[in-house]
Amino acid sequence: MRRRTFVRNAAALSMLPLGARVLSAAPAAEPVTPALIDAANKEGKVTYYTAMDLSVAEPMARAFEAKYAGIKVTVERTGSERLFNRIAQEQSSRLFRVDVVNSADAAHFQPWKREGWLAPFVAEAVARDVPAEMVDADGMFCNQRTHLSTIAYNSKLIAPEDGPKGFQDLLDPKYVGKLVKGHPGYSGTIMTATQQIARELGWPYLEKLSKQKVLQVQSATEPPKKIEAGERAIAVDGSDYLFWMAKERGSPIEVVHAVEGTPLITNPMGIFRSAPNPNAARLLVSWIMSPEGQQFIVSLSGQYPANRQIKPKPGRPLLSDIKTFREDPRAVEREAESIKTQYARYFKV
Predict the structure, then answer these.
(1) Of 302, 297, 238, nearest in space to 61 by CA
(2) CA distance 156 to 233
(3) Residue ranges of E strands in 113-210
(4) For the chain (length 349 residues), average pLDDT per consecutive 10?
(5) For a 10 Å CB count at each end of the chain, is N or C smaller?
(6) Contact present, 34 and 86 (Cβ < 8 Å)
């Protein structure tokens, strides 16, 4: 389903203006209780839809299962834009499979909320430890983690003194045929990053970039893998935590925070009202947002935590020290179809 059609239909069905709230206030915070654990164990399973790379999502699921041995987590990983379409199709067909969803495109949660598809839930850790700006006012979703879409390069193929310092540098003729980037039609990270870059640098910049013989891939998880393998020298974009993880493995990867600014990506998470396993869903969200769950994500991948009790991973730059572009989910929702159209016109994909 095209996002523009989805948004139009959602507004018509709900008879609510853009951005209107379904509820007037968030529900009270819910602690993890023996009753919740017992109910979740009776369900015995939970399905987690996510855009997070499987190298992080699967170990996280196994850590949850180790704590709650009676519950099996099924991880369904795909690009956020495909995840969005998949959920729309499942809901229209009344094939209710998703329990918990985590998207790298924060704009997705606007129509899901307007449609009444999300269940209000505020975990105790969220109410206590997550900044208010990261939590939906009606308790429909909260930010699970934050990452960046950064430039990076393979230092065996590009000498540090010749490496790019920012986005404009990528237009240098010496980089023709050496670049790889993700696609906004597949990846929520790249959709969000593209909106920010187009706003800050203009579409003429992206038109010039498209003439650099860029290797086009789908997911934001792919450029890190392409430059680590040496298939391309420079990644225009991609999930920064995967670049850092590759560097920690000993790969010759250098992460670049562009002088112009770096796209910032929040990753909200919510529970669907139609969840087949609502108690296990609440338990999973509670654990992911707890200090234990947040520390697991940070220790493994270095993504920036939403829970303020958890410090960033040692060796990673502080988010506050990085010049980032402003994220605007509502603008992404409005502009998504035009972004895909303009991008396809320039990059021929």
Answers:
(1) 297
(2) 8
(3) 118-119, 142-148, 151-154, 179-181
(4) 45 33 73 98 98 97 97 97 95 96 97 97 98 97 98 97 97 98 96 98 98 97 97 98 97 98 98 98 98 98 97 94 98 97 96
(5) C
(6) no
